[in-house]
Amino acid sequence: SLEHAFGVAERIRHLINSRELVKKATNENMGRISVSIGVAELVAGDTAESFLNRADMCMYAAKNSGRNQVMDTTEPEPAANSAA
Q1: Which domain holds residue 70?
Q2: Which residue in 29, 30, 38, 73 could disulfide with 21, CB within 3.0 to 4.6 Å?
Q3: For residues 25 and 56, is the Cβ–Cβ distance under 8 A?
Q4: Contacts 24+ apart (CB under 8 A), 19-25
């Protein structure tokens, strides 16, 4: 389901972002990696291209909304829009 895929993507995002990057040669802290992930659900009539385009649009929406987050194809609920 879309909800399950979203949860998996969120766990991946958290695991990637939870690690500090350290340069082995100098032990210099390089910071953290962030990741923006788009999640889409395969629907009847989808082609591989249309499915991937929706996921890609969600990924760019995540990047444009501040990065380091997961976005899917569902519409945000009104309460989510008013919280800032």
Answers
A1: 2-75
A2: 30
A3: no
A4: none
Q: Is residue 6 part of a domain?
A: yes
Q: What is the domain-level CATH number for residue 38?
A: 3.30.70.270
Which position has the token pair 């009847």?
Answer: 44
DSSP sequence for the chain: -HHHHHHHHHHHHHHHHTSEEEETTTTEEEEE----EEE----TT--HHHHHHHHHHHHHHHHHTTSS-EEESSPPPHHHHH--
pLDDT along the chain (84 residues), means of 10: 95 95 94 95 94 95 93 62 38
The 3-state DSSP class for residue 38 equals strand
Q: Has residue 84 been placed in a domain?
A: no
Domain count, the chain: 1
Does residue 83 lie within any of the structural domains? no
